[in-house]
Amino acid sequence: MPRPIWSGAVSFGLVTIPIKVVPATESHAISFRQVHTEDGGRIRYRKICELDGKQLRDDEIGKGYEVSKDTIVAVTDEDLAEMPLPTAKAIEIAAFVPAASIDPVRIGTSYYLQPDGQVAGKPYVLLRKALGRSAKVAVAKFALRGRERLGLLQVKEDALVLHTMHWPDEVRSPETLAPGEVELSVDEITGALALMDTMTEEHLPALSDRYRDALEEVIAAKAAGKEPPAAEDSEQATGGEVVDLMAALNASVTAAKETRGETDDDADVHNLPTKKKPAAKKTTTKKKTAAARPKKAG
With contact defined as beta carbons under 8 Å apart, do 237 and 243 qualify? Predict the structure, then answer.
């Protein structure tokens, strides 16, 4: 488990829970260095003071806020620590709301809350069990890394999890992104629902980062002086290509069923509707009845 990045307390009402905040996730992304393309030399960044030209160590560098072009106000760590802010050392729960009411776009980084000391055990378990038996989450405010943040508390197994949240004014509106009016047939919508049924899983599948795996193969090949593996051909449609939706949906359902080892006879798979061709009109030939010839006068 990584080292805590913050310690304080969770408070709701008169209940206080001493906790430590521990990162709940870690990045496995591959990092690159900037190098000189001619000789492979590393490109370094030096922190130089623009007034005296000296290269500075990290312990010689502080924070400053530029209030105007020629004026910077220095702000120390002590200034930040002593701010008269109720959430400076507390995760203050403001409300409990239905979990379904939270917009997923607003959720950010996740942290585990570790009880800090024996005194934290009982109130920690109390909050965990209360949240676990309800369909609600806790909305809280706290200060972390130089700013006050909005947070969300919920339960994961036997631990409390704190998710950072974006403030309402930090979420852009998507209203200008939607396409104009589009005509869809009932068959196309039904087909999309049938594809969703075919691809439905009981739990989130165990997916992996294929880009990172492929990148590791490229790096290993180049490190061994070999050619990187060739890219596989992709037959995905391009952005400007007109797609036959019904054909694409039918092909997608077939591929999904093959992946799952299912057949068309499986009862839990709904076959996509196919567009019926209009029935050919039947042409009927009417028999002409010969008219009785008038009798000749004798």
Answer: yes
Residue 39's alpha-carbon distances to 33, 42, 213, in angstroms, are 14, 9, 27
The residues facing 18 across adjacent strands are 9
pTM of the model: 0.68
β-strands 136-144, 90-98 pairing: antiparallel
Per-residue pLDDT of the chain (298 residues), as tens digits, is: 788 888 989 988 888 899 999 999 888 888 889 999 999 899 988 899 988 999 999 889 998 989 888 888 988 877 776 776 666 678 999 999 999 999 999 999 999 999 998 899 999 999 999 999 998 999 999 988 778 899 999 999 999 999 999 999 999 988 888 888 888 889 888 888 888 888 888 888 888 888 888 888 888 888 888 888 887 765 555 555 656 778 888 888 888 887 777 765 543 444 454 444 445 444 444 444 444 444 444 4
Residues 6+ apart with CB under 8 A from 76: 62, 63
Q: Which 3 state secondary structure label does DSSP give 94?
A: strand
Look at residues 236, 266, 268, 248 and name the one whose alpha carbon lies nearest to residue 187.
Answer: 248
